[in-house]
Amino acid sequence: MLKPSLFKPLKPGFHSIISFTAIFHKCKSMKQFKEAHTQLIINGLTHSPSSLRSIISFSDLDPSGDIDYALLLLLRASTPRTVFLFNTTIRGFSRARRPGSLWSSVLLFVQMGVLNLAPNSFTFTFLFQSCSNCVAFDLGRQFHGMVIKNSFETDLFVRNSVIRFYSVCGKLDDARMVFDESSEVDVVSWNSMIDGCIRNGDILEALSLFSKMPERSNISWNSLLGGLVKFGCLDDAYWVFLEMPQRNIVSWVVMISGYSQNGKPKEALALFREMQMLDQEPNSAILVSVLSACSQLGALDHGHWVHCYIQKKCVRVDSILSSALIDMYAKCGSIDLAMQVFNTSRERDVSTYTAAISGLAMNGCSKEALHLFDQMKSEGISPDGVSYIAVLSACSHAGWVEKGFHYFASMSDVHGIRPELDHYACMVDLLGRAGLLEKAEKFVASMPIKPDNVIWGALLGACRVYGNAKMGERVGRLLVESDKNHDGRYILLSNIYAESMKGEDAEQVRKTMRRRKIKRVPGCSLIEIDGCLHEFFAGDRSHDKTEEIYSMWEEIVKEIKKIGYREETRAVVFDVEEEEKEAVIGQHSEKLAVALGFLYTKSGSTLRIVKNIRMCNDCHYAIKLVSKAFKRKIAIRDRKRFHHFEEGLCSCRDYW
Q1: How far is CA 359 from CA 147, 197, 330, 509, in A?
Q2: DSSP codes joined into one string, 64-78
Q3: Of the residues 151, 297, 390, 572, which has the fewest C-beta atoms closer than 10 A?
């Protein structure tokens, strides 16, 4: 804060103006500028051009500035009008990205004409930025006409802003025409064209342009890298990443987040380890992506290491990073640690609360999830659509149908949130899990928006669980035609037929699947032991300890048979498809993971396993008995939720 002594009354004059000009140049915040301006007015002085430039530039362009304050200064009668001051304020509006910013820029441009201030190349560059931000094609096209009329089209900065403007508006042909007709192009011109191709889905043209570039900047490489990741070309992206002459933090962010967001968490963790070996400091964006990868794998040891790294390096834990930590611990089955992070979070917003609510619901703590939802509202934080998905999931896991409908209604009635397909899918899942299949089908029929395949899939899954062959056949036939590439639709329908003793129909579905070359996603389980991830498929014999693993499971089965275990052979009928034609139930992937855990973890320690599909009834029953016979806590996350097994009981209460 400026010292009051600096503002002692001065007599108007040349030296006092110089004094205030010096003060303006020392100002570092909007508050200081306003205090200095107030004293200038009190002393009856006018702005010098230099001081006016300082305060308007800061107000327009600094993140802590006040563009409305700059506008008031610019338009007051006593202010000397210059093209620079107008350009600066137009530039400020182009960066503000708030409602009305574009038209504020246009009105300033018009006012320049009224004052006979001729626009220059910078004026049009900033105007095109504003048009790009708002995708204002018609207006930008008019400005392009003015550029040509006033002979600014040869200016490199203007031309690059025109290329970007057309690209953002989806007019790639116009952008390419400006690029090709340019007598001079620089690396920014090439980058703008490549970005335009990526933005408009033409990744091949982007690659072609990149190969022709006379020189490339980090922005060139990162732009292409981001484009390849965006379109799922991760192998090509990694090749580009390796070929980069110099990688900056953006390169690492793009590649690691690309792996994490595209279902390649192991690759994300491997790249993060490589980054550590090169002594590269990750930023928050990378840490969030790495935590997401740990969440997907259920890699608690890896995730805990990242948490310790954050604490050791004193990384600022904002709401985004806090949410990622909560999500990681919750999805790794350690809900206590997740809530510990939540309770110690300094910054709590709707995303932080939602991560905690979702984590509680997933781990079978539905009552606590709803309590936290009420706490969030009591603290004045309004829920969003994602929050309601977490709440509806909590109701679904607990079988609370009436509560689910209460919260579903409150979305629109209380918070004005229009339900989307994900919310309707939660409601169908809620009804389906409760066995209310007729009500679920009627609910789907009454939806104001067309149901998608996820909603029909939820209903089909419920038909299988409750043995409703008639409805299952009807919904299944619809899905195998509308969602032809989803292996699970064929498998569920085939299983429903098989359970209904319609073997020929079941075989016909499998033939259709083979004819369409649909590959089945095999059952897969992951277990982390001493920081190392072990992956098992059904009937897997690829592990170097295979013989010991199978022998251990046989020993486990002998013990649980003493307390009543009998293989549930009914499950073989429909789980053959999900577990890649396994020979026997004992070879299910989670059972192999449990056996490995028994071999290489301390007695009494908790086993944590992640599975990619729903647990079958036999595995669920067997592992309940394992937890009882061996006094072991076993946490298994399947496709929908966590199963915490302890003393012969499961947190799902056999409702999953």
Answers
A1: 55, 40, 5, 37
A2: T--HHHHHHHHHSTT
A3: 151
The C-alpha atoms of residue 27 and residue 366 are separated, in whole angstroms, by 53
Q: How far lies 78's CA from each of 52, 72, 75, 114, 183, in Å?
A: 11, 11, 9, 16, 43
Contact 609, 527 (CB under 8 A): yes
What letter does residue 651 receive in the DSSP assignment? T
- From CA 259, how far away is CA 271, in angstroms rounded? 9
Q: How far apart are CA 378 and CA 364, in angstroms?
A: 23
What is the reported pLDDT for 11? 47
- Over residues 358-383, the pLDDT tens digits come to 999 999 999 999 999 999 999 999 99
Q: What is the pLDDT of residues 69-88, one digit of tens each?
A: 888 888 875 667 889 999 99
Contact yes or no for 221/251 (Cβ under 8 A): yes
Q: What is the pLDDT of residue 49?
A: 59
One-letter amino acid for residue 81 of the chain: R
- Report how far residue 519's alpha carbon sits from residue 183's, in angstroms, rounded to the nearest whole number: 53
Q: How far apart are CA 185 and CA 197, in angstroms?
A: 17
Query: Strands 642-646 and 607-611: what pairing?
Result: unpaired
Element (H, E) at 475: helix 469-482
The dihedrals phi and psi of 76, each to the nearest 5 degrees, come to: -70, 150
User: Model pTM greater than 0.85?
Assistant: no
| pLDDT of 445 strictly over 70 | yes
Handedness of CA 379, 382, 386, 391 (dihedral sign): positive
Residue in 401, 327, 411, 412 with CA at minimum distance from that of residue 361:
327
Q: Are the C-beta atoms of 617 and 590 separated by less than 8 Å?
A: no
Tell me the β-bridge partners of 529. 532
- Please choose, from the candidates 244, 208, 207, 246, the residue with its C-alpha nearest in 3D space to the C-alpha of residue 227: 207
